[in-house]
């Protein structure tokens, strides 16, 4: 079992939780993720990215959004409570080396898994530029943490309530079109954001890595739900990724597959059951 050390609400539906997991904390690398099982009554296991870790204290920091029954149940846990199981670290670590100048782009909750990558890129001797994007000021996360490692930091919001009123692709274009282009870019966020970050980088022939963690389901390669097409080949995000060369990812196919059950997910009956927390939702595969 893993004891919860602290919990903080970052926005209306985003939470930061620090938990005891000494073996994972000491061995994890940037880009990897964990699988969390909340308790034995609910058998579902959900993949979550690692936002930070303290090897000496033996703790992991998770940032998650309440999007379904399981994450809502996780959000009501308090410090001192325990999580039944945490498995990890899983997935392939981020390829980190001294590239030169690296532009790291995070959108929404994708800023959290970007943080250890920013740390790693800076430790490798790179000049690191960080672009953080959110819909509104209230949804901007990890800004102060990022400032400790970023040589430059740009914050953009859709509504202009904080930082620059823009999409993340606008400052990314500014950097990619400069006389001296970035040597590498990294993007983590909603699939549509990563798609257009890739298009922007491709226009200026700048390499880009993207993390497709948002498509993962069981996180072990057993369900096949996270299959994507990369360079014309079928890959599974949880075991072959979660990071890939963005210029090789078939984003259109990935986004089409992610919309396959949108009508079912948007049905009023489903939403009402989730909001009311009816026990019949406590079944494997629902979160």
Describe it:
By secondary structure, the chain is of the alpha/beta class. Helices cover 27% and strands 31% of the residues. It contains ten helices and 16 strands. It has helices at residues 22-27, 69-75, 111-123, 143-147, 169-176, 191-203, 237-240, 251-258, 262-265, 268-276; strands at 2-9, 14-20, 33-37, 45-54, 59-65, 82-83, 85-90, 101-107, 127-134, 152-157, 164-165, 184-188, 208-211, 227-230, 233-236, 243-245. It has a seven-stranded antiparallel sheet. 42% of the residues are buried.
Layout of secondary structure:
Elements: E1 2-9, E2 14-20, H1 22-27, E3 33-37, E4 45-54, E5 59-65, H2 69-75, E6 82-83, E7 85-90, E8 101-107, H3 111-123, E9 127-134, H4 143-147, E10 152-157, E11 164-165, H5 169-176, E12 184-188, H6 191-203, E13 208-211, E14 227-230, E15 233-236, H7 237-240, E16 243-245, H8 251-258, H9 262-265, H10 268-276
Parallel strand pairs: 8-9, 8-12, 9-10, 10-11, 12-13
Antiparallel strand pairs: 1-2, 1-6, 2-5, 3-4, 3-7, 4-5, 13-16, 14-15
Helix pairs in contact: 5-6
Key terms:
seven-stranded mixed beta sheet, Elongation Factor Tu (Ef-tu), domain 3, alpha/beta, disordered C terminus, Rossmann fold, seven-stranded antiparallel beta sheet, 2 domains, 287 residues
């Amino acid at each position: 079992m893993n004891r919860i050390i602290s919990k903080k609400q970052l926005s209306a539906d985003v939470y930061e939780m620090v938990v005891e997991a000494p073996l994972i904390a000491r061995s994890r690398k940037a880009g990897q993720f964990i699988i969390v099982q909340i308790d034995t009554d609910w058998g579902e296991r959900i993949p979550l990215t690692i936002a930070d870790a303290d090897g000496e204290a033996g703790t992991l920091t998770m940032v998650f959004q309440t999007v379904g029954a399981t994450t809502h149940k996780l959000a009501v846990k308090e410090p001192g409570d325990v999580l039944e199981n945490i498995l990890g670290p899983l997935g392939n670590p981020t390829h980190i080396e001294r590239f030169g100048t690296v532009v790291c782009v995070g959108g929404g909750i994708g800023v959290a898994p970007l943080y250890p990558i920013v740390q790693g890129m800076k430790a490798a001797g790179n000049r690191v530029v960080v672009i953080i994007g959110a819909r509104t000021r209230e949804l901007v996360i990890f800004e102060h943490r990022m400032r400790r490692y970023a040589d430059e930091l740009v914050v953009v919001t859709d509504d202009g309530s904080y930082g620059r009123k823009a999409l993340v692709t606008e400052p990314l274009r500014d950097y990619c079109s400069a006389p001296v282009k970035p040597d590498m870019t990294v993007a983590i966020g909603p699939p549509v954001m990563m798609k257009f970050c890739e298009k922007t980088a491709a226009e200026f022939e700048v390499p880009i890595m993207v993390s497709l963690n948002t498509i993962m389901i069981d996180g072990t390669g057993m369900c096949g739900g996270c299959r994507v097409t990369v360079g014309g080949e079928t890959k599974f995000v949880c075991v072959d990724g979660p990071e890939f060369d963005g210029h090789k990812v078939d984003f259109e196919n990935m986004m089409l597959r992610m919309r396959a059950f949108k009508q079912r997910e948007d049905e009023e009956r489903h939403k009402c059951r989730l909001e009311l927390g009816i026990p019949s939702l406590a079944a494997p595969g629902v979160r």
